[in-house]
Design goal:
Blueprint (H helix, E strand, L loop, with lengths): L2 E5 L34 E3 L4 H6 L15 H5 L6 H10 L2 E4 L7 E4 L1 H4 L2 H15 L6 E5 L3 H12 L2 E5 L9 E8 L2 E8 L8 E9 L3 H12 L3 E10 L14 E7 L1
Helix pairs in contact: 3-5, 5-6
This protein binds 1-O-pyrophosphono-5-O-phosphono-alpha-D-ribofuranose (PRP) and adenine.
Length: 256
Amino acid sequence: MLSLSFLCSEPPSLYKPPQSISDSSSRVSTHPFPFLPPPQSLRVTSASPANKLKTPRKPIGLSPFLHYSASDFTMSACNGENPRIDDIKTKIRVVPNFPKPGIMFQDITTLLLDPKAFKDTIDLFVERYKDKNISVVAGIEARGFIFGPPIALAIGAKFVPLRKPRKLPGEVISEEYVLEYGRDCLEMHVGAVERSERALVVDDLVATGGTLCAAINLLERAGAEVVECACVIELPDLKGRERLKGKPLYILVEAH
Ligand SMILES: O=P(O)(O)OC[C@H]1O[C@H](OP(=O)(O)OP(=O)(O)O)[C@H](O)[C@@H]1O
Ligand SMILES: Nc1ncnc2[nH]cnc12
């Protein structure tokens, strides 16, 4: 097996612990759902470099936590996008101190329990990418495998899994990267992507941006053009979008 390994650049700043965590011994607290903790101050946004190219972003002040722009309202055929995003953000559980102390873990498994919110999530991405001539959706293990395939099927693109080391059986290229809580590596099958293909990278969350950076590097080394990266959640305080080599990032929800 041929394995070429490259190391992504260090993140500009790693995770800063939250100012107060009420329950440091337990990972789960209370929530509107009996079994879920309360949502953090999640801010809803569809801002991305791609949007900025189309329409200047102008918050219209619906709420201190909801930042909409004119372009947000034009991205959906019936202007129903923001209620959908509002609902999606309430379905994401925040688990303090997982997988280690100080991390506020954004848990999308609770979003998956709600078929409407899960479908709305996929639909929002499909509406954005269906006419963008994308031939490859590259999903990042593991949670990018949940959102990537339904998007790929809906827009008529192939799905390419970007996997953790030693999971793919064929010849691979590899990229190492630095995480919010450790180091890791992504691999892609040689031949899965052809030169000049237009690729979308999908994951559940961008934190430091190291994972997306590694994914972009893999696709570009194969000769593909990375059109955009798409995630459900961004942790903007970690400035991950600054590590994406100038590629646009589209997200549904910001978490602080
Ligand atoms: O922007 P970054 O700092 O690179 O972090 C984001 C990545 O971290 C999480 O995956 P994780 O590595 O925890 O793996 P998992 O999906 O297999 O749990 C998340 O699903 C992203 O892939
Ligand atoms: N805070 C977080 N929640 C969920 N996944 C993550 N990956 C990196 N940071 C994360």
